[in-house]
Amino acid sequence: MTDGSAGGPDRAPLVIVGPTASGKSDLAMGLARRRPGTEIVSADAMAVYRGMDVGTAKPKVEERAGVPHHLIDVADPTEDYTVARFADEAARVVAEVEGRGGRVIVVGGTGLYVRALVDEFAVPPRYPALRAELEADPDTAGLLDRLRRADPGAAAKILPTNRRRIVRALEVCLGSGLPFSSFGPGVDHYGPTRFRLAGLEIDREIMDRRIDTRYDRQLADGFLDEVRALVNGGWSRTASQALGYRELAAHIRGEATLEEAVDEARRRTRRFARRQQRWFRRDPRITWFPAVAADLVERVDAWWAKPAADSGQELRDW
User: Fold this and answer.
1) Structural domains in the chain plus CATH codes
2) For the purposes of burial, counting CB atoms within 10 Å of the CB of 233, is it exposed (0-12), middle (13-18) or buried (19 or more)?
């Protein structure tokens, strides 16, 4: 490890990505403890919500006291926290930490949040009433035809079966009067960035076992009571879709047994983890490290200390 003196390569903000249960938070904490003055920025779309602690596997309060954490518990569960809000707040936090001479580690598995920060996305505005109108139209092919007329470039990049992206692009086109594609090159473009991106690679069988074990631990820690409080207090559409929360809420409403709810939560989380793996694998800027390596912290720390030109894809097998 270098001392990270001003202008040193390890002053570049680090981003740790990977699927759920791969150990991102533990790695971030290990690195932060080795480097005094390091602060952690969460890029988890659900950790932003107060009262959603057990199910989102947030670092415990005592851990956060030792290493400053940001963008955790910044919204009420009744709010729809957006990627645009995250991009603005995360950029401000990074600038503030660096302004006082600190190092930054961004950690999280919400791919769009990471890209919004790393690539400084110009996030298109939202038009809720218009979106509701579009979502009420069951004709996905017809919506895609409308998008082709409004923005042929955007339509060409979206799979005909990806209704969510079709609706979002059409919402922006109709609401703003501008082509959706005018807001930037999109998630398929991976340009230069000052952030250093490290990914955690994990065998799927190991990942699945970790997911199962984590649900057992969370249930023992009061996950069901946490969801019950949220259901009784009210929560936004965004918050209510969180992994595990939706399924346990169904059990609380009497729509499933606890066993059925937990089994479905595990299946949904495994599917989500695989989507995360595919999402991050598309980014050629990420250097990959084995999540189960005994010396993982040391490996990533040494890589982070190297100049960017010496730490790219040729080191993907660290």
Assistant:
1) 9-121+189-315 (3.40.50.300), 128-183 (1.10.20.140)
2) exposed
